[in-house]
Design a protein that fits this description.
single chain; mainly alpha; Urease accessory protein UreF; 11 helices; disordered N terminus
Length: 235
């Protein structure tokens, strides 16, 4: 039996790696929000809340968080061939080039920092070697699964933390894109976090064969970002 004190030892490190100040390069990416907000005419925190309800939350519940679970299980078993397969699947469903490259860029940035913070972690080193050899793509979800397993973060806490990061990235971008106040942005984030436990619970019921989130309009606008006349973010 693990004591309460021992079971909470992962909390400080989780706070560090989940902090927006953790330099993964996420600040440079809107992850598709820039073109989508322009196309939909978003102007307010309420628009951002609706975006969470209609797209970001369901995407977490049906796609990203389930894949985080599958990857975490594969990391636990040191099933590196399965990890590579899941990495390739993530690469395939991010068909908009900028979104795919943004995921890899953030994964690469996180991996670089994790190697410095935990240089003796064999799994981090093994994945870094595989990435350097071109055997894996290096997506952010994969690196996140490895870090959560290394820190022994409980499953639900890991899913919540990843969900928070995803919503917080959109909120950070929205302050520039929508010119909303920090208070309005935080209100939108608060509403999203209120809903996050439901999305996490839904994600825990999704089998691998059923995982997926189909949002062609959002993907098309994400792809159009590459040829936009002007833009604030890389993706």
């Amino acid at each position: 039996m693990i004591s309460d004190q021992q079971s909470a030892e992962w909390v400080p490190a989780l706070l560090q790696i989940s902090d927006p100040l953790f330099p993964t390069g996420a600040y440079a990416h809107s992850m598709g929000l820039e073109q989508w907000a322009a196309a939909c005419g978003y102007t307010s925190g309420q628009d951002l809340q609706q975006f969470f309800i209609s797209h970001a939350g369901p995407s977490l519940a049906r796609l990203e968080l389930p894949y985080l679970r599958y990857l975490r299980a594969a990391v636990q078993s040191d099933a590196w061939l399965e990890i590579a397969e899941l990495d390739a699947e993530i690469d395939a469903w991010k068909w908009a080039g900028e979104i795919r490259e943004a995921s890899i860029a953030q994964g690469r940035g996180r991996l670089r920092l994790l190697k410095k913070l935990w240089p003796d972690c064999e799994r981090i080193e093994q994945y870094a070697d595989a990435y350097a050899a071109g055997k894996v793509r290096g997506h952010h979800l994969v690196v996140s699964a490895i870090q959560f397993e290394h820190l022994s973060v409980p499953e639900e806490a890991a899913l919540m933390a990843y969900g928070y990061q995803s919503l917080a990235n959109f909120v950070s971008a929205s302050v520039k894109l929508l010119r909303i106040s920090p208070e309005a942005a935080q209100a939108a984030l608060h509403d999203g976090l209120d809903r996050l436990p439901v999305w996490v619970a839904e994600s825990q019921q999704v089998e691998r064969a059923d995982a997926g989130w189909f949002a062609p309009a959002f993907d098309i606008h994400s792809a159009r970002h590459a040829t936009a006349f002007s833009r604030l973010f890389i993706s």
